[in-house]
Design the sequence.
């Protein structure tokens, strides 16, 4: 997506540890217009997949997920992060390990918002190690629902997320693919 890549070039900064900071439009301040066009792009890519729900994980996945749900005309669920093991009655849960923050979180989705015939599109802001999406896949498996694919705003192709998801049979669509953040420079890969 050209507009997204242009914005990354203009306002993205590279932090130590191969982290791209895009607080200007995605992770803190949100450019709602850009998010809407991102949602429309995901909706177009999954238009024929029969999606009934969009799933993401709080917090940074919510903005692009909501815009995707709006474009597809389906509800959006954000899995909640819980540090506690308790109070999980009536909820599906999975463990997500964050390599960047070095903490493990439980993510949960209430069973009452999941229907057995759901066809889920997973949306997230970044794909790095694939832990967040894998957690949602574990929940989908528990719930017995189908996952049609994963839509990612920014994929870091030098990290193992995509191969982890494709091994589980999940098609991945990324709107910007970054192959390197070495030397503080953003280098894009070819798009899907
Ligand atoms: P994974 O979800 O692909 O496994 O990523 P990983 O465990 O490596 O990353 C943990 C958190 O860091 C995730 O956010 C992920 O979206 C984010 N992240 C990974 N790489 C980058 C990056 O280059 N730039 C930025 N800005 N974020 C990155 P989270 O813990 O779920 O937090 P939240 O922001 O959604 O609340
Ligand atoms: Na994030
Ligand atoms: Na995220």
Sequence:
């Amino acid at each position: 997506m050209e507009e997204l890549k242009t914005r990354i070039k203009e306002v993205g900064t590279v932090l130590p540890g191969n982290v791209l900071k895009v607080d200007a439009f995605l992770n803190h301040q949100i450019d709602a217009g850009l998010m809407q066009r991102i949602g429309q792009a995901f909706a177009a890519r999954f238009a024929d997949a029969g999606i009934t729900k969009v799933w993401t994980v709080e917090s940074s996945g919510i903005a692009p997920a909501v815009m995707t749900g709006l474009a597809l005309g389906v509800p959006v669920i954000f899995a909640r992060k819980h540090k506690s093991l308790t109070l999980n009655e009536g909820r599906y849960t999975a463990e997500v390990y964050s390599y960047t923050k070095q903490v493990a979180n439980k993510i949960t989705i209430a069973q009452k918002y999941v229907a057995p015939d759901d066809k889920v599109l997973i949306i997230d802001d970044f794909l790095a190690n694939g832990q967040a999406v894998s957690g949602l896949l574990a929940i989908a498996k528990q719930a017995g629902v189908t996952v049609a694919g994963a839509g990612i705003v920014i994929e870091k192709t030098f990290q193992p997320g995509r191969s982890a998801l494709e091994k589980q049979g999940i098609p991945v669509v990324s709107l910007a693919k970054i192959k390197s953040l070495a030397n503080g420079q953003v280098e894009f890969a070819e798009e899907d």
Remarks:
- The beta strands are 13-15, 19-21, 53-57, 76-82, 91-98, 103-110, 119-127, 146-156, 172-180, 187-188.
